[in-house]
Amino acid sequence: MRSRPADAGHRSRGLISLFIGCVSASYTDSDEEDDVSPREKLQKSTKGFDDFCVRNINQAPFGRREIEIAEQEMPGIMALRKRAGDDKPLKGAKIVGCTHINAQTAVLLETLVELGACVRWAACNIYSTQNEVAAALAEAGFPVFAWRGETEEDFWWCIDKCVNAENWQPNMILDDGGDATHLMIKKYPAMFKMVKGIVEESVTGVHRLYQLSKAGKLTVTAMNVNDSVTKMKFDNLYSCRESVIDSLKRATDVMFGGKQVLVCGYGEVGKGCCQALKGLGCVVFISEIDPICALQACMDGLRVVKANEVIRQVDIVITATGNKNVITREMMDKMKNGTIVCNMGHSNTEIDVNSLRTPDLTWEKVRNQVDHVIWPDGKRIVLLAEGRLVNLSCSSIPSFVISITACTQALALIELFNAPPGRYKSDVYLLPKKMDEYVASLHLPSFDAHLSELTDEQAKYMGLNKAGPFKPNYYRY
Ligand SMILES: NC(=O)c1ccc[n+]([C@@H]2O[C@H](COP(=O)([O-])OP(=O)(O)OC[C@H]3O[C@@H](n4cnc5c(N)ncnc54)[C@H](O)[C@@H]3O)[C@@H](O)[C@H]2O)c1
Fold first, then answer.
1. 26 CA from centroid of ligand 1 (Å)
2. CA of 45 to the centre of ligand 1 (A)
3. Is residue 132 within 6 Å of ligand 1 at its C-beta?
4. Backbone angles phi, psi at 150, to 5 degrees
């Protein structure tokens, strides 16, 4: 069986929770030192249920409170739970889930069950499980197989337990990173053929699905929810707008007013970062390779420069390009003492961190996720999270953002499960725009936002259905 890639902890927006492994509130750390593997323990809930494997079922009450807190900030998925609860659109769905297991995904899982589904759930990341949440789910009677700090072997064992169980033929997969799909294809091909649909959340998993489809090996319909407009906007623009400041402050206690900041890349993530930085009074410079994004930056009142023009003077450098070696050793040699350097893009190669591992430089760990890299003359730069995504490493993602993702996932499952034969082929699809609009609409009431409605005359004039979709597929929001 394929072994887990080295970047397993970084993938996916599933990334969602590199952070969860790092910073989420949890009192489970102490018993993580417990040597006995959960697989060797006799496990039973207070009601005698034993089809699960978690670190410590006694943590369930604490996990339940965490789930209740998450529910407060996840209005969309809670609204969906309420609206569709009577219809049970997932009645008969048997879902194998492989996602991060935390308070927010617990809200999704419990919603799917309210909508009629049966589920079995494993974690998609060996570090991100909130043990107390897994315990709460098990206590509530969900077959959950996950704990923080699983070994590679545990990881696959847990997924296997979700796929291969007595009286259980899964017909849907909810994946984040493609591992449940992978295991079923490789180990249970006959079972996989019976699956009606796959919903995949991560960049990596989606990429694999497209590769399978291209090779003609995808025998099931898959929905790429990673690229749904609503999810994208929240993950890339709005979430980064909030978390960039939070992560920098937590890591360095920096004051932003008046600081000179270079942001490399003015895409969705870069735009989000700049809005926040400007709001706090920073002087923001942008480096861009794309004239359209560069012009947008100009229109937004930002100075567009080559990185080298300002590298000696800036206080903070943030990369957000998705590219590699955007900040080189040569640039870092030129930076002034105390410059904070961090990355918001997917890969940890945007900043050439490896080039800093030379004998002439000293690394000093200052805090968790904060290193001083010291030059022979005493100059030091402050490197955050060793160049990995700073917000996911040093901050957290708002539950509201995950509410958007969770709604998108739930609606994709409903759509695939209920689609009449012939609507979809064995290929990878995006969520229909109407559903993307529905995800957004589910979140409007929490802002007391009131949508205008098209009149018949207006709808005719615009050539639109009054109920949407309101934009063509090529529309850029
Ligand atoms: N930190 C997070 O929470 C988070 C969330 C979503 C996405 N991401 C990641 O952030 C990265 C950016 O995402 P996005 O949605 O903004 O992408 P995007 O494509 O909209 O923007 C990236 C921008 O960088 C520019 N660019 C590329 N190479 C450059 C270079 N050498 N110098 C200057 N500019 C350059 C591109 O022209 C583009 O405008 C991706 O890697 C994405 O996976 C991070």
1. 32
2. 45
3. no
4. -65, 150
Residue in 244, 321, 344 to alter for ligand 1 test, most ligand atoms within 8 A of Cβ:
321
Does the C-beta of 392 come closer than 6 Å to ligand 1? yes
Is 243-394 the same fold as 17-231+397-418?
A: yes
Q: So what's the pLDDT on residue 15?
A: 42
For the cut 90, the answer to whether the pLDDT of residue 33 exceeds it is no
The CATH class for the domain spanning 17-231+397-418 reads alpha beta
Is 0.70 topped by the overall pTM?
Answer: yes
Q: Which ranges in 92-216 belong to alpha helices (H)? A: 103-114, 131-139, 152-163, 179-187, 189-193, 203-214
Which residue positions form the known binding site for NAD(+)?
267-272, 288, 391
pLDDT at 4: 38
Q: Where do the domains of the chain lie?
A: 17-231+397-418, 243-394
Model confidence at 237: pLDDT above 90: yes
What CATH architecture applies to the domain 243-394?
3-Layer(aba) Sandwich (3.40)
In total, the chain counts a number of residues equal to: 477
